Amino acid sequence: MKKTVLFILLAIVITACTVSYKFNGSNINYTETPTLEIRDFQNQAPLVYPPLTQVFNEHMKDVFIRGTKLQLTSIAPSMEIEGEIVRYDLTPLAVQENNLASQTRLTMAVKFRFRNNVRPEEDKDETVSAYRDFSSSLMLTDVQDGLIDELTKEIVDQIFNSTMSNW
After folding, report:
1. DSSP per-residue string spanning 104-124
2. Which pTM value belongs to this model?
């Protein structure tokens, strides 16, 4: 009898105590803020690479769709994100004795504005950036698409963490 009662109590404790982990880092009250509008980011940088805008915008929407339960809408959204790509440029690095750079840095920066129409105190206006270095012996056209994917992922993750997390 004691073993049965002990077993039932143990079963209740085990089923009552659950641990929940969220690895996307989001902290969203979906009943309060169920919708999000992500406006297309335009490339305002002096150096323009045409595919960059499309790659960035698609990745932004993909990360927010996969990482949250928010519904994307343009009609009376609870939250809004908009912005522009403000920097996309090359910088020579590691100048050698022959006055030539052995490395080149590709830098990308995005200015974004986040509005929480339910909680205006959470509004943000920030600029985030990322960079990747590559050998100067390579042409930018040879490495550009891969670097854009990496830079876009890093910047979108920064935007996601800044807007959807409450650290």
Report:
1. EEEEEEEEEEEEESS-GGG-E
2. 0.81
